[in-house]
Amino acid sequence: MSSTSAHRELAELLTTGCHILAEQSILDGFGHLSARLPERADHFMIPRGISPALVTPDDFIVLDLDGNVVSGGGQPNSEWPIHASAYAARPDVQSVLHSHARLSRIFSLSRRKLRGLLTGSAKEWKDGVPVYRYAGLITTRERGDVVAATLGSGSAALLRGHGDVVVGPSVSATVLKAITLGQNADAFHELLSHGDEPEAWSDEELQAWVMPRRGSSEGAAGQPNRAWDYYVARVTGALPFR
Ligand SMILES: [Zn+2]
User: pLDDT tens digits for 41-64?
Assistant: First the structure.
């Protein structure tokens, strides 16, 4: 496959991801989803500065890790360093999301840590999703590097009073992780709203939540990715009912 058609395919995949996240109210007028170029570890594809809900495959630009536009037309989003620093710090990361998701903002301001409570979250976030605590938009690589350090080896971090950053080994994994983060936050938020306090899982119980990947939301090799297929159908009008 030529790099031109490979880039077009990646732009189409990112467009679908943006639309799924917008439909889930994770992205709105702001926020952005990107992917590292498979053939250039120091380049990534990201929409120009427009609402992700309105993105088409023609709206993507390629940036280097210093924020220079390598190809495509339009201005980068001001918070491009969130992406550049995550790609620089984490060779395993192939896709990065920055969102202003409502529940991420709420928990970023809470003195209570957003802990993992549900099946897909319990183990990874048993000690809480880390929080980047500093004020201001992430418009420099210096700030981006602090966000990446907050993220560590994890898949998500909250940005205090601002939103979150979610990373993954593929576009679909990052999108689905952001949905999982929101569902977990929703359950926790609901319980707290009732004045309830969820019981912590024991280490033995957490081990029981480590499941084989077959048919899971991560879409193991050779297996259908059920969750991704479902969310794609929601934004492409392919659900077999209305
Ligand atoms: Zn932001």
Answer: 999 999 999 999 999 999 999 999
Q: In terms of C-beta density within 10 A (0-12 exposed, 13-18 middle, 19 or more buried), how is residue 51 classed?
A: middle
Instruction: State the DSSP string of 199-218.
Output: PPPPHHHHHHT----TT-TT
Say what the pLDDT of residue 210 is.
78
Distance 238 CA to ligand 1 centre (A): 32
CA of 195 to the centre of ligand 1 (A): 31
In this structure, the chain runs to a length of 242
CB contact set of 48 (below 8 Å; sequence gap of 6+): 59, 60, 61, 72, 73, 74, 75, 76, 77
Q: How much is the pTM? A: 0.94
Ion ligand 1 neighbours (CB, 5 A) are 79
For ligand 1, the distance from its centroid to the CA atom of residue 105, given in whole angstroms, is: 11
Structure tokens at 106: 């709420």
What's the pLDDT tens digit per position in 64-123? Answer: 999 999 999 999 999 999 999 999 999 999 999 999 999 999 999 999 999 999 988 899
As given in the structure block, the two tokens for residue 33 are: 């989803």
Using a 10 angstrom Cβ sphere, with 0-12 exposed, 13-18 middle and 19 or more buried, the burial of residue 1 is exposed
CA of 203 to the centre of ligand 1 (A): 35
How far does the centroid of ligand 1 lie from the alpha carbon of residue 100, in Å? 6
